[in-house]
Amino acid sequence: MSLGGPNLATTGWPGQTRGVGGLSSLPPAFALVAIVGAAGCGSSGDGRRAAPAGPAPRAIECPPRLPAPSPLPGVRPEQRTAAYWLERAALQGGLDDVLLSAEEIALHDQALKAPREDGKSLGWVDLTLPVQTAALRDELAERLGYLRERAASGEYVDASGRRLDAARVEVFAVPDPLPEIGLELHLTLANVQFRCGPVREGLYRLPVDAAFNRNSCGSVHPQEPVLVLARWPGGSMLARARHSFGWIDGVAPLSPPIRGPVAASIASGPRSELLADATLEPEEGGSTSALPRGTLLASVRGRSGRVYFASATGMHTSQELPATVLRSTERPLTRRAVLEAAFALVDSPYGWGGDRGGRDCSGFLLDVFASFGLQLPRDSARQALAGTGSLPVGPEEGEAERLALLDEAGRRGVVLLHFPGHIMLYLGRAEDGAPMAIHSFAEYLEPCAGGGETLRTVDRVTVSDLSLGRGTSRRSFLERITRIVILGH
């Protein structure tokens, strides 16, 4: 299997030629869904906690909804640890084999930025590039037109379940003329939520579930660069992060504007990751900033152990940090490193579109692979197109064929498993042969012995057996897989 290269073409299994594909190969509705940040993931496909299908549940024998147990059915406590899966991977060999070098990851990131058949790319945005007003207007017309249509039709309602009146629908019109467009670069000082539209209120489908706000379009962690494009009517700001686009609060926690030579390093330069909670001290002295493990910071070129960070007073260069605390993201992709990065997030909360600081399925994988400098797209459908290789899985493939494909893919690299609305990191087989994955998800269905189905709420990053959901109207995770994605040679 070859590296993706500029056109992301790849050779698949013996006797088959596979391409990563493009938006044009998907149903027409997908392009718009991806644009408005369909990044949330739940077992139902669209993420919504749908009412369980099948026979009407009986109040005592088959409750309609219950919290999921921990660990999940079919999972033992030790299988929720990196140590277990590191041991399993070591038995098969290649735990520290370089699947992608830092140089190959950089080439792959660049390939993802190439325009696809629809004129869009899968890669992160370079915040140092000038904004083309005409292209921005087209992007806004597509985004806001999508939201306006669904609000006007009643497909999207407010938190109380009421349709939006004409005045609230009109908020999704593109202003003419556009507000003055500027380029003001900042670093976030706390988690910042991106909204799909220029309103603070949530948008929901019926029946309303507060966990699935269709106006949540991603979030960025502290110390991430954000480009403010315009002050918007109503008090919000139109903004762009490297992987998200939308509206943020007019009082979002941002640093003062960043200008001068350091701006390019902040916007698109190399990154380093904190390996432990750390208190950063400015090189010039002054107040310190406490940042959590996993924070990504812009590296100071040519000065090992030093990073840029922001506070409410401005930009700072840190005093030197030891290698035990700070690591460059320019590092090779190995099975060991991916497992360690993924399991560091076990039990972190789920959040549709990054809502309330949580991670949905694609947000989880984005964070895992960002620690290698690998720039996955923000939503699950596009992540399924962003591997160095992939294989579509058709409905005609039985369980034995699916497991054989997973085994072969696992020998070739790190494996992601996708079905519409969801994506997972494949862990491999447990000693009893059960295939398992780690992922951030909201829910699954469980059949009741006497008929009916119970909706089990998970709402966290955890390990599951791929047989979860078997015998329900949604089917098991294994049965629902439509694409196997590989990251490796």
The residue-averaged pLDDT reads 88
CATH architecture name of the largest domain: Alpha-Beta Complex
Please describe the biggest sheet, giving its number of strands, its sense, and whether it closes into a barrel: 7 strands, mixed
Overall, the morphology is globular
User: What is the count of distinct domains?
Assistant: 3
Please name the CATH topology of the largest domain. Answer: endopeptidase fold (from Nostoc punctiforme)
Describe this protein's structure.
Residues 1-40 and 42-51 have low confidence and may be disordered. Helix 2 (82-92) runs antiparallel to helix 7 (335-343). The chain folds into three domains: 9-120 and 332-487, endopeptidase domain like (from Nostoc punctiforme) (endopeptidase fold (from Nostoc punctiforme), Alpha-Beta Complex); 133-249, no CATH class; 271-328. The chain starts with 8 loop residues before the first strand and ends with a strand. Helices cover 21% and strands 23% of the residues. With 489 residues, it is an alpha+beta fold. The strands form seven sheets. Strands 3-21-20-19-18-22-17 form a seven-stranded mixed β-sheet, sandwiched between helices. The longest helix is centred in the first third of the chain and has 21 residues, at 133-153.
SSE map:
Layout: E1 9-11, E2 17-19, H1 28-35, E3 65-67, H2 82-92, H3 102-112, H4 133-153, H5 166-170, E4 184-187, E5 192-195, E6 216-220, E7 225-231, E8 236-241, E9 245-249, H6 262-268, E10 271-274, E11 278-280, E12 289-291, E13 296-298, E14 308-311, E15 314-317, E16 326-328, H7 335-343, H8 361-370, H9 380-383, E17 389-392, H10 399-412, E18 414-419, E19 422-429, E20 435-447, E21 453-465, H11 477-480, E22 483-487
Parallel strand pairs: 3-21
Antiparallel strand pairs: 1-2, 4-7, 5-6, 7-8, 8-9, 10-13, 10-16, 11-12, 14-15, 17-22, 18-19, 18-22, 19-20, 20-21
Helix pairs in contact: 2-7
